[in-house]
Design a protein that fits this description.
The complex is a heterodimer.
Chain A: E1 5-16, E2 19-30, E3 34-38, H1 45-52, E4 60-65, H2 70-75, E5 79-82, H3 94-104, H4 110-120, H5 136-148, E6 154-158, H6 166-181, E7 185-190, H7 193-196, E8 201-206, E9 209-214, H8 216-223, H9 228-237
Parallel strand pairs in A: 3-7, 3-8, 5-6, 6-7
Antiparallel strand pairs in A: 1-2, 1-4, 8-9
Helix pairs in contact in A: 3-4, 3-5, 4-5, 8-9
Chain B: H1 3-19, H2 21-43, E1 50-55, H3 60-66, E2 71-76, H4 78-86, E3 92-97, E4 100-105, H5 110-129, H6 150-180, H7 183-188, H8 194-223, H9 232-253, H10 260-277, H11 289-295, H12 299-311, H13 320-343
Parallel strand pairs in B: 1-2, 1-3
Antiparallel strand pairs in B: 3-4
Classes of the chains: A alpha/beta, B alpha/beta.
């Protein structure tokens, strides 16, 4: 196992009844890399991320995270998973939510870690607020803070900036950049092109298969288009 | 199994629940309101007076003989007497001719009919023998007593039904919310195991369930003044094991519902068979073989038997019957906890 590899997926297959969600997906993500999963709705992005989070067992193929099976990697605290919709307890305060997730992840010195995570998402002044009273953007920030608490080595972000305003989106990407600079690997799914262009590498998937992979510039050049959005549309429409 | 993680889940449930005032009211106030109503209904001595109309002339001696009994006799002509019966103003019509009595009753309610016929027959024997019935029938009580009301007999079962019902409902809906709001998925993507999650839920809800059991018990004994013979601690232990089973059953059942409306529909399915077949309305040994077989797998059957034996008959915790019932309730709780764990689907990758 290459020590530089964070995620290695080989020929991963997953079906839900008659629907094929993953159809032999193969990709590798290096440590400290921000890898963007691009694809239309229903292309298998979320299924792949849920597989990496140890929530789904593939029907075929292999998935390894830092050389371990996904559930083992999650159990060791190596993985942080941010779901599409903020998964928080509305009746509890921001602080109580974070303390709860910190306890599940076995975080020691909870107070300091909660404070640090809140500072990162700029919500220190709202720590006593009840989550149900926060705006959706703030809830997304709390959700990100909850994912960062145990300092995971791999962050799985499933469309993290859906419903987030452009200013906050920029802030998020600054966080992601600084995390990647400190060695954290980030796998992010998206269909926002502005966001995709910020990734180190992109994997374009359709019908559960990898159609193309490379930097944003490489994909644009390969599609022979002027921008990433057109490249995405051209490559998605091309026969598999 | 990490007690630290299970404890974190339990703490979170306690925190959430403490803020949910409506659910707290449902848990603690609702049983008291219903018990008070039941107490007023069943706690007072029922009026057993039977209104009998005699068709035709009645011997004044008969009227004299019935004075002081629970038979209220009046005389009318036959048509008027029948009209009284039809209108519901009388319970029975009696005709005496040629030393034979014919009793006509309204007859639509079998229980009431049996009681009326029994009373009238008793009164007729009393008349024929010309001695008060109490002169040769002396009643002594193994358990209970002449001042025992229906409430005293039913209170142990009511305690079990309320404790089971409210906790089952709350744990079903709470866990369903966890499943549908996306938080369950988030929890399963942490080191938390399914067993720890179920243990945490059982711990958190058991705390409220036990508090509720304590409140219901105290209310029944000290406010409704239900008579009891056994040890209060024994009653509490039986209740505790029962409600822990109710929490696990709620968690497992929530897997079969997609939304809260569906979850609520499971309540009659789970509760009604237990109300009908656990000895609440009809004693278990009077059920048919098929119904008795169903009753044998219902937790409330064992809770009722144990609670009634302790409260009415004064059985001790160490009595083999009580120990057996507690053992069966504990086994049910364990079985349901395993079912709850299995109902949380995580296809471990």
């Amino acid at each position: 196992m290459d020590v530089q590899v964070a995620v290695e997926a080989r020929d991963v297959r997953k079906r839900f009844g008659s629907v094929t969600a993953l159809d032999g997906l193969t990709l590798t993500v290096s440590r400290g890399e921000i890898y963007g999963l691009l694809g239309p709705n229903g292309s298998g992005k979320t299924t792949f991320i849920r597989t990496l989070a140890g929530l789904l067992r593939p029907d075929g193929g292999d998935v390894h995270i830092f050389g371990a099976l996904p559930r083992a990697a999650v159990s060791s605290g190596a993985v942080g998973y941010m779901t599409q919709a903020a998964a928080l307890y509305g009746e509890l305060s921001v602080d109580e939510n974070l303390r709860f997730f910190a306890a599940l992840e076995g975080v020691t010195d909870v107070g300091a870690h909660v404070e640090d995570a809140l500072r990162r998402v700029d919500l220190l002044d709202r720590r006593r607020s009840t989550v149900s009273t926060l705006s959706s953007g703030m809830r997304t920030r709390v959700s990100l803070a909850a994912t960062l608490l145990h300092q995971p080595r791999l962050l799985l972000l499933d469309e993290p900036t859906v419903g987030v305003d452009p200013a906050l989106r920029r802030e998020f990407w600054e966080h992601f950049r600084s995390l990647a600079a400190s060695g954290v690997t980030i796998l992010v799914s998206s269909h926002v092109m502005d966001e995709a262009s910020r990734c180190d590498r992109l994997g374009l998937i359709r019908a559960g298969r990898l159609l193309a992979e490379g930097t944003a510039r490489e994909l644009v050049a390969r599609a022979g288009t002027s921008d990433l959005e057109s490249a995405f549309l051209a490559l998605s429409a091309a026969p598999a | 199994m990490s007690l630290h993680r299970a404890g974190a889940v339990a703490r979170r449930i306690v925190l959430q629940f403490r803020r949910d005032r409506r659910s707290l009211a449902l848990l603690f106030v609702a049983p008291m309101v219903v018990l008070t109503l039941v107490g007023v209904l069943w706690g007072s001595a029922a009026t057993n007076t039977v209104r009998v109309v005699a068709a035709g002339d009645v011997d004044p001696q008969v009227l004299e003989a019935l004075r002081g009994t629970e038979i209220q006799l009046s005389a009318l002509d036959r048509d008027a007497a029948l009209e009284e019966l039809r209108a519901g103003h009388a319970d029975a019509m009696i005709e005496i001719a040629d030393n034979a009595a014919t009793v006509t009753v309204e007859g639509s309610d079998p229980t009431r009919t049996a009681a009326i016929v029994g009373q009238v027959e008793g009164a007729l024997i009393h008349l024929i023998l010309d001695v008060p019935l109490t002169a040769f029938v002396k009643v002594s009580y193994l358990y209970g007593g002449p001042d025992y009301s229906l409430l005293d007999y039913l209170a142990p079962v009511l305690i079990a039904v309320f404790a089971f019902f409210f906790i089952f409902l709350l744990s079903t809906v709470s866990f369903l919310r966890e499943r549908t709001s996306g938080t369950l998925e988030r929890l399963l993507a942490t080191p938390l195991t399914r067993g720890e999650l179920v243990a945490g839920y059982m711990g958190g809800f058991a705390l409220f369930a036990l508090l509720q059991a304590l409140v219901i018990l105290a209310f029944t004994v000290f406010v409704l003044k239900v008579q009891y013979r056994g040890n209060l601690a024994t009653i509490f232990i039986v209740e505790a094991v029962l409600v822990i089973g109710a929490v696990s059953l709620g968690l497992a059942i929530s897997a079969f519902a997609r939304n809260e409306l569906q979850a609520v529909q499971f309540v009659p399915l789970v509760l009604l068979p237990q109300v009908f077949l656990s000895g609440f309305l009809v004693p278990v040994d009077q059920l048919s073989d098929v119904l008795r077989a169903i009753s044998a797998v219902l937790p409330l059957t064992y809770a009722n038997e144990a609670l009634r034996s302790v409260m009415v008959k004064g059985y001790a915790l160490t009595d083999p019957l009580i120990l057996r019932d507690i053992g069966i309730l504990a086994a049910f709780a364990l079985l349901m906890a395993v079912a709850a764990v299995l109902s949380i689907r995580r296809e471990v990758a």
